[in-house]
Amino acid sequence: MSAIAAILLVLATAMLAAGLAYRLALWLAAPVPLSIPTMPAPLTRGGAAMRVGREMLLFHSLFRADKPLWAASMAFHLGLALVLLRHLRYVVAVPPAWLVAIQPVGRLAGWMMMAGLLFLLARRLLVPRVRMVTRTGDVAVLVLLLAIGTSGLVTTYLLHTDILAVKAFLTSIWRAAPEGLPPDPTFLLHLLLAILLLAIVPFSKLLHAPGLVFSPTRNQPDGSRRYRRPARWARTLAGGGQ
Amino acid sequence: MSAFEPPPLADEVELAAPPALVPGAMAHSRPYVAAPAHNQALGFPGERVPDWERRAVEKLGELLERSRALRVFLDSCVKCGACADKCHFFIGTGDPNNMPVARQDLLRALYRRHFTVAGRMLGRHVGARDMDEALLQEWYTYFHQCTQCRRCSVFCPFGIDTAEISMAAREIMDAIGLGQKYSNEIIGKVHKIGNNLGLPEPALANTLEGLEEDVLEQSGAAVKFPLDVHGADVLLVTPSADFFAEPHVDGLIGYAKVFHQAGISWTLSSHASEAANFALFIGSYEQMHKIAQRIRQAAIDLGVKRIVFGECGHAWRVAYAFLNTLAGPWDFLDPAYPVPQHIVEVTHELIRRGGIVLDRDTNAGKTVTFHDSCNVARASRMGDAPGGQFVLPREVIKAAVPSFVDMHPDTTHDRTFCCGGGGGLLTDDLLELRIKGARPRMQALKEVVEQQGVTHMAAICAICKTQFAKVLPAYGFPMEMVVSLHQLVGQAIRLG
């Protein structure tokens, strides 16, 4: 049991790393042959990096687009970030003071994440124009996240699992015989679904996270009258100016 | 289709209210297909190639290797729908395929099917589709219902730009022999003659002479419209619509008066007698490059020191954002000036330092608003600071007219609504679509007309001007409401 879980976890992590590396390699191999930032754009590289940062941390464009969607999205993503942070204590041998201190916040964040997800799912199913562009895969990802969140909250509040055993397992997965997982069904479900989530990131719309960083309309500075950027494939074109 | 009458504008401005979905509402709207000769003139197959399904997939693969933007945009969409109600064509038609996300998904379907693991394994459940006649017909219909105005990209949390997607789709369609008549025919004319109208040098010279006579008669000043003058300081590259269309030509007269009064020597070129670069609309870098080379050649041949562009939205995008890459380096020009410059930058600077003087009283009775052209607003800049493309035109207008009013802030600056005619759609076979697409702008205009007494709407884009002259009457406004920005300047400038 523990061995199977360990193998799946390692496998999923490997898929995540290899899949992301492959995807990023494809992105980086393709040039950006023209200057296409959505204007107005910052004039410097640093400014453009700040713009991407504002998008990543504050969802600035989404805020301008749709306030309720922004709030739900922020609740989910921020909640997830805090929950993940809280999970660090299951792998760090001696949790530092701040990690201990944020545990209650992390528990609250779990609820925030679930509220955000429920709003997103309801919106997806109830708003006709969003429903129109929804495919099975879009619902499936939300359901997967909801299931991970629900099983996590259940183990936190109702059916406590032996977290010391969990920690022992997670810190021993590299050994030939990893230490025993607690045999609680809710917890095992939680772990299994989380493993599944890790594995599908590079093959699904969860690519939106790295996508934002590589989006030319957001990460390019506005400097096209100062700098030329002919792509390698474009340099073979006939005519002057190459 | 020309008999299409839009429903009346709402009494209350409801910019925020998304329309009810009307599936298939615009399924009948398609532009004329290019004749074989139009395609072949650009090096595209004249007619549908035999194994077009396979060729379309292959072309998509080529484009993915040429553009990181395309790859990232196709991979990153989460279908959140933030873009859905931001498109003027969706607002104006209610057709769900006009939601930017749905439009993108028409291309994404083929991408998913052939270039992703999930699409190969799960097919329709993740939106993957094979290329077939039905999908191709949807492409032709709905990728010609996008003006590539980039309003959706402003609101997308990942900056996905539907313009890039629709350009790629049009490029694929050209590669399999399914071109759009309007754009391809015009690009052919530029390659052959030098401008979109197919206006040869003698006719252009004749037109400019006529303008000199008109201006002399009206103002008493001997304002010149020089053509192919070697050694002039400024090469003016302007949309060919400026040579004959209303109100465009009044803008050209305005530029000429500015140069005249400021004592700047300038010339037009018969070789590069077109600022427009419709190759942008069909997404073809090669065609865009070829057209841009005419400007480089003209600048070298005429020995000019600066290049200035007239009022044209997509032309200014190609000029500001692409020209340096497409046809630079411009090291043979005067380094004291950015290359290229916009005529509004020139006029703004002259007003600021007193090189020209404007008299607002000459425009008495006019209350003017300004339509931010999509390509100027969201794809370029003017002046030194970000957002100068919003500030400079407004300051020039305010210097020329007694009263200026802005439209609703959800419809100006980078949130401006497209006129409904850009992106290669300014053709009569798409008139119903154009009228419907203009609706959000017309609604915002109605508000300032009724509440603040706006009499005129200034534009700095040849396509916007033509489009508004056509669609304003459909919404009960006089077509003369749309004016060129430099028409106001030309009216107000003190000559002599």
Structure explained in plain terms:
- The complex is a heterodimer of chains A (about 240) and B (about 500).
- Chain A has about 240 residues and is an all-alpha fold.
- Chain A contains twelve helices and no strands.
- Chain A has helices spanning about 1-30, 45-60, 60-65, 65-85, 95-100, 105-125, 130, 135-155, 165-170, 185-200, 210-215, 215-220.
- In chain A, α4 runs antiparallel to α6, α6 (about 105-125) packs antiparallel against α8 (about 135-155) and α8 (about 135-155) runs antiparallel to α10 (about 185-200).
- The longest helix of chain A is centred in the first third of the chain and has 28 residues, at about 1-30.
- Chain B is about 45% helix and about 5% strand.
- In chain B, the strands form two sheets. Chain B has a four-stranded parallel sheet with strand order 2-1-3-4. A four-stranded parallel sheet of chain B has the order 6-5-7-8, sandwiched between helices.
- In chain B, α12 links the parallel β1 and β2 (about 265).
- In chain B, α5 packs across α9 (about 160-175) and α13 (about 285-300) packs across α14 (about 315-325).
- Chain B is globular, with a radius of gyration of 22 Å.
- The model of chain B has no long low-confidence stretch (mean pLDDT about 95).
- The interface between A and B is large, with 65 and 79 residues.
Identify the most extensive interface between protein chains.
A-B, 65 and 79 residues
Query: What is the CA-CA span between the terminal residues of chain B?
Result: 49 Å
Strand element count of chain A = 0
Largest sheet of chain A: none
Would you kindly provide a brief summary of this structure?
The complex is a heterodimer of chains A (242) and B (496). Chain A has 242 residues and is mostly helical.
Features:
heterodimer, A: 242 residues, mainly alpha, 12 helices, globular, B: 496 residues, Fumarate Reductase Iron-sulfur Protein, Chain B, domain 2, 4-stranded parallel β-sheet, 21 helices, 5% strand
